[in-house]
Amino acid sequence: VFILAVYAMRFDLLLGYTGILSFGHAMFFGTGAYVTAILLKHAGWDLWQVVPAVLVVALVQGVIIGVLSLRVRGVYLAMVTLAFAQMFFILAEATDFHEWTGAEDGLHGVPVPDWLNPTDERLRFYFLALAFCVIMYLIVRRVVDSPAGRVMVAIRENELRAQEIGYNTFVYKLIAVTLAGMLAALAGLMNALWNLNATPSMLDVNTTISALLMTIIGGIGTLVGPLLGAGVLQLLGYWLNSTFGPR
Length: 247
Fold this sequence. Notes:
Elements: H1 2-16, H2 25-41, H3 47-69, H4 74-93, H5 98-101, E1 107-108, H6 122-144, H7 147-165, H8 169-195, E2 197-198, H9 205-218, H10 224-244
Helix pairs in contact: 1-6, 1-8, 1-9, 1-10, 2-3, 2-4, 2-8, 3-8, 7-8, 9-10
């Protein structure tokens, strides 16, 4: 719930506060998970080295995707971001890179430090995920309450008016996309540590739809909404599966 809440906040930052309809959320989420899994399993990096690497990759990815997609608006922007997300999904499943990505099976058995093992140190991981969620919420709250955040809201309400006042709306939208991408990548990192794997399903369109549902259920443009939506969606899914699922 805590990990997916941060992932959903990424969607809310774009749609709820900046008015950007993007279907590329899973792209950053999956990228964060795959970068984490590859560096831990194949490169043998320590976790403290992986975290900044994920942030740098997400930053570069966010800037590139933002520059290429923010030239259009509305449904066209949604389609462009969906196309980029599907491109990364296809690359993850490609057999050409199976040694690194595991192709359709994904990467499993990701090594994590003993003190963070989600199997043996479950309670510790819980509190880490809780702290992660709280810190990310405070960071995003600080952003949306800042002068830059007020400009993002102005773009959502009336982008042409914001431009007439003198703001370069493209720059602020690019900041929103990049920051949101870094949030999603960190959530992907935590998800890879929690499940000890990175699979193509993290890049699938259904993962993007999950963020949309969590945000809508909790309330768009509230930040607290994605937290509540993630709790409702995950716990409801768990209850339905345990009650009506196969036995």
